[in-house]
Design brief:
This protein has about 210 residues and is an all-beta fold. About 0% of the residues lie in helices and about 50% in strands. The chain has a four-stranded antiparallel beta sheet with strand order 1-2-3-4, with no helix packed on it. The protein has a four-stranded antiparallel beta sheet with strand order 5-6-7-8, with no helix packed on it. Strands 9-10-11-12 form a four-stranded antiparallel beta sheet, with no helix packed on it. A hairpin with a 3-residue loop joins strand 2 and strand 3. About 20% of the residues are buried.
Length: about 210
């Protein structure tokens, strides 16, 4: 709504009894209990999940071809919580985290062909955190027992690349950024992890709140 009004010096101008009409009404996409709701960085896809009595359906809205379809149905009895964990850099794959009593399961769904990849089949680890390499769809990195592992989807294979009192991390190509806890202090590190121990990591102390 917009309107041009006259403004006079030292006086207040206002309108009352204004009724606004919507140009278009909201469109109902789905009904039910929604758990996951996330859009891709380019705003062309939306992933959401609908919880029913016995299962949770993961669905996608694809604005590139104006389609909406089911990508995975999960038995609710097999886990206690389902979370969205991240988009691949190419935005055609999605990472999810299932929380179980025995630990965490991370899995990937390819949004083009609906292929399902359980990362536990590649790396039999109880990861606290898994993140995509921000520059490659083929590599993910997982944190387990204060050690960061590289997961190569193209092989498939995994290997440990860095150990320490690591709290969280991010990886872009050969550069790794991580926060480490040392003597009750937190430090932010940046390192080229392919250089091994030959090059020291850059280190910044994080101020306490």
């Amino acid at each position: 709504w917009q309107k041009n009004v006259k403004v006079k010096s030292n006086l207040t101008t206002f309108y009352k009894d204004i009724v606004l009409f919507k140009q278009s009404l909201p469109v109902n996409i789905t009904a039910g209990q929604i758990n996951i709701l996330t859009s891709s960085p380019n705003q062309r896809k939306i992933i959401y999940s609908v919880i029913s009595a016995n299962q949770e359906e993961i669905r996608i809205l694809n604005f590139d071809n104006d389609s909406s379809y089911l990508i995975k149905a999960l038995d609710k009895k097999s886990y206690s919580r389902l979370e969205f964990a991240g988009w691949s850099p190419g935005q055609n794959q999605a990472l999810f985290k299932e929380t179980l009593k025995s630990g965490n399961i991370y899995f990937i769904i390819d949004l083009d062909n609906l292929a399902y990849i359980n990362l536990g089949d590649i790396a039999d680890m109880n990861f606290d955190e898994v993140k995509w390499d921000t520059s490659s769809d083929n590599f993910l990195y997982g944190l387990a027992k204060k050690t960061i592992y590289q997961i190569d989807l193209s092989q498939p294979a995994f290997t440990d690349i860095l150990a320490g009192s690591i709290q969280t991390f991010a990886v872009s190509g050969n550069d790794i950024y991580y926060i480490s806890s040392e003597q009750n202090n937190l430090y932010l590190y940046q390192k080229n992890w392919t250089s091994g121990n030959n090059i020291l990591a850059e280190k910044i102390k994080i101020p306490k709140a």
